[in-house]
Amino acid sequence: MTKLPFYVERQWWSVAVAAAVVVAGGHFCLLENFEGNGIEFHHFLEGMVAENRFGLTLILVGMTFENFVTYIAFELQKDSDAVKEALNQLSEVGWAKKWSSQPYVSRRTTSLRELTTLGMKNAENLAIPSVRNDAAFLFTVVGTTGFLGVLAGQLPGDWGFFVPYLLGSISLVVLAVGSISPGLLQAAIGGFSIFFPDYQDRIARHEAAHFLVAYLLGLPILGYSLDIGKENVNLIDERLEKLIYSGQLDAKEVDRLAVVAMAGLAAEGLKYDKVIGQSADLFTLQRFINRSKPQIKTQEQQNLTRWAVLFSGSLLKNNAALHEAVMDAMSKKATVVECIEAIEKAAV
Fold first, then answer.
1. Which neighbouring-strand residues pair with 30?
2. pTM for the whole thing?
């Protein structure tokens, strides 16, 4: 059997992961007792496809979609090119039909009316950050400390003076911290947000949208998080990273990245009257715009944002079942591979 320490660790040793059947024109070839490591196994399969031996079609016996992708991702240490190539191979054999199924995007002039027609609840205010969580947090702090201060005023002796004074100063301390270190205040507000009934749904909907749209556009995902203050979907693409750092993003790549960046905002806009998680998305989009060459003019930047919201929103509406599947998987803390599998199963 193939030496796969990762499978042994996950107790997948009972799966015949080294068996493969090459089927073409009545020719069959059973591969077993393969002794190479993960990279060698990957290169072997790659070479078989490249050489088109027997006009082959690869069918992996005993290997599920999840097993194969996890194996490739782990053994190649999540190298972006290798992950993309593995997913491309899975797509060729019919296991990853939705991977890079929407590879071409083309920017065009977009109006607010189109966003409204698509179903955006409040298209003209999508880019305006909601202050709901901030206001609720500050109101709670001021209201609670004020109420406790009134009660503490009934304490006997000096306690009735000092305790209300200390409680009253809490609001001032909160404001001071927010002025000096906004990040700390934002973290506190984020923690407070979990008390809103729609919070978990918003986060899952938002991040699942980034994940799904990136997958449909052919951008590999390294990881994601729904943790408070760390909500993100982490993409891996070494070629794009180099272009971003060098400030050499062309219009085509900016368009693709813009669609992924605006997917979370679009997902919230299709569901809720007010969007809460758009600040980080808009910051990310601006980063891509600043790294583009030639530079995008201010008026064109506004149109790019609208178009990206429209395009990503259209993808989400047309793939609503897939979006819900990713949301459900993320809510259960599924791995990246399990999220991909959820997409492909929902597409059947």
1. 21
2. 0.70
